[in-house]
Amino acid sequence: MTLSIAKLDSVAEQLSETFLSHYPLKSAQHLASLLPKEAATLLESQPMHVVLRVWKYLTPNVSEALFQAFSLAFQVTFIAELESHIAIGLLHKFEPERQSALLAQLRETHADISQELSDLLEYPENTAARMMSCHVQAFYGDLTVRDALSQLKNQSRPVADVIYVLNSAREVVGEITLNTLVASVSTQTLVNLASPVKARLNVMDHKDSVIELFEGLRCRTLPVFDAHMQLVGQVRFFDVYQSTKEELASDMQTMVGASKDEKALSSSWFAVKKRLPWLQINLLTAFAAAAVVGAFEGLIAQVTALAILLPVAAGQSGNAGAQALAVTMRGLTLREISTRQWYQVMIKEMFVGLMNGAAIAVTCGLGVYLWSQSLGLAAVIALAMVSSLVIAGSSGAIVPIALKKFGLDPAQSSSIVLTTITDIAGFMSFLGIALLLSDFLPKG
Question: pTM here?
């Protein structure tokens, strides 16, 4: 009986390992649905190569929670297998005391890796050093293809896609892709195969500069050098893509007043602390919009149809502003535009607002006329649509650029600021035009 139970447990463990190994994406999605402690216990029972395979498909918040749920012994073993930039990203989530304890434990078995990670932690956040992988392949230029391939086969770690070629002074003089190396004649020397390096990064280069370089060059990887121009690592396109993806995801939260630190499973109290201040600010801005409506109280009392159409004017301008904001935020995040191009972006969005406003004005004006049988009311809503969409579009472009220009996070609650502007613009345009054309409006 005992033997049967032991055999059943062994089969279940094999099935778990097989599933995790062959279906890493589905496994990652399943792990995300479990409590961190349960998922951590499951992974700790698996071979390390299986854990590393699944880990690539975990979202940042899930991977952080899982790593912190691992036992200290498994954390040490696991972090020794990770690429340096991924390990640094995980270590950065710990308090300094916990970092020191983990690195001290790592030093007992992997002194070189512990020292490497300690050095990287000294670099500021958002620098090339924090994005790079210290695992690089570099050979002297007089080495033959046969000898280089032989050395690569003897290495325990996976081979990088790009191999750097050094001269006798240990300076990088070129690079070779792994595909080129494998397909070349075995007697050729590396220096004859190498192509020039497209660009060089310094460990202190800001993340924005790194992303801009990759965006312009469209290359696989770029080498990173220290102050003495020694090759210390490389940044891959995949790392830049991951960084940009996480930045875009966090921008989505900050645009509406949520903190970048808040996760889907964060505690309710943490979420309240992060969101409430911005909700209070939004309340004040809502009163500002209400004050605009209050200023036209007499006109609204005379023409009650205006009160019915107010949400239409505000809603359309809000949507138009949100569209312009989303496109501008994407441009800033992906470095498609800079703050110097504010005028071109603003003019473009103004013209978009003008054309969209004209099209919406025809539709809306026709609908209001059929409803109210009033040409005056139809003209008011049509003119308000054009003016409010022009203002909303230009505001959606200017708000994030202005925040970035003043050294602030362009995503930080820009949606709340924009909502205030579009509400006030929508109400002011609609009610202001209505006041000018009040003689043509139906009373009552």
Answer: 0.52
Question: First and final CA of the chain: distance in angstroms?
Answer: 88
Amino acid symbol at 61: N
Predicted local confidence at residue 347, as pLDDT:
92
- Alpha carbons 415 and 395: distance in angstroms, whole number: 11
- Statement: residue 359 has pLDDT above 90: yes
Q: For residue 22, what are its two tokens? A: 């062959």
Report d(CA 189, CA 146) in Å as an integer.
9
Torsion of CA 98, 99, 102, 108, to 10 degrees: -130
- SS3 of 83, please? coil
pLDDT of residue 352: 92
- The whole-number pLDDT of residue 356 equals 92
Yes or no: say if 73 and 109 are a contact pair by the CB < 8 Å rule. Answer: no
Contact 314, 428 (CB under 8 A): no
The CA distance from 239 to 128, in Å, is: 11
CA distance 263 to 66: 14
Q: Give the H or E element holding residue 7.
A: helix 2-22
SS3 for 206? strand
Task: Give the residue with greater pLDDT, 255 vs 233.
Answer: 233
CA dist 291 and 288 (Å) reads 5
Q: What is the mean pLDDT of residues 255-276?
A: 64
Helix (H) or strand (E) holding 60: helix 60-69
The token duo for 411 is 């995503």
Q: What average pLDDT does this structure show over 91-103?
A: 78
Separation of alpha carbons 396 and 386, rounded Å: 16
Q: What is the pLDDT of residue 389?
A: 92
- From 236, 228, 231, 203, select the one nearest 139 (Cα to Cα): 231
Buried-exposed string 89-110: b where 16+ CB fall within 10 A, e elsewhere? bbbeebeeeebeebbebbbeeb
- Has residue 21 got a pLDDT over 50? yes
Share of the chain above pLDDT 70, in %: 86
pLDDT, residue 12, reads 46
**Positive or negative: CA dihedral 286, 287, 288, 292:** positive
| 127 contacts 206 by C-beta, under 8 angstroms | yes
> How far apart are alpha carbons 379 and 369 in whole angstroms?
9
3-state helix, strand, coil in the chain (%, to 5): 70, 10, 25
In the chain, the percentage of residues whose pLDDT exceeds 90 is: 8
CA dihedral 328, 334, 335, 340 (to 10 degrees): 10
